[in-house]
Amino acid sequence: MRPSGRALDQLRTVSIETGVSLHAEGSCLIRIGNTHVLCTASIEDKPPPFLRNSGMGWVTAEYGMLPRSTHTRSRREAASGKQSGRTQEIQRLIGRSLRAVVDRQALGERQITVDCDVIQADGGTRCAAITGGWVALRIAMNRLMAKGLVTGDPLLDHVAAVSCGIYAGQPVLDLDYDEDSAAGTDGNFVITGKGKLVEIQASAEGAPFSTEDLATLMGLGLQGTAALIAAQKEAIG
Question: Of 25, 73, 82, 151, which one's alpha carbon is 20 to 30 angstroms from that of 67?
Fold first, then answer.
């Protein structure tokens, strides 16, 4: 039995509220169970220096956790003067995941930065950030198209992410904190709307896992991201 009482292949309750930021070109608040992440997309009409005069744009991401998003207060990284290795790894993952479904030539010489701020954490924050980050990016892209600033749609497909793992000897979908902290195997699956893989992060926290276990978790990941993409479609209308 899972601590939450969910079935092995059951996602937590998902909600995506759009238009939550007055100033951002795209925004949403994604809630997956008790994990809540604010995602905003900001458009700059110039690319990063390494892409100047290339005709191509760029999508990048930044990620952070508010001090009391977890059980105990954590110090703001700005106060220490540097980001943790975890933060850097997660924001690079978010950026890679979003760029995987962007036609950077069609975007033109501009940059979109997707900021993902964790308001409340209960496991799966990087997955929620990717899933919500895509919604914020979609809204920003819609704004570019509505203004006639791009030719065609630079966003080629959906992308979403979900955690899967082995908890108490059973493969489970969408781990919350209680499960994640005790899982024997923990994985994150980033998958497009067409069912193509962007990234798989999986590791044994105790005993090694088998290729059969990985295949089972892959199946759960496909099921979970399909449901999350359905939530994305509902959110953007």
Answer: 25
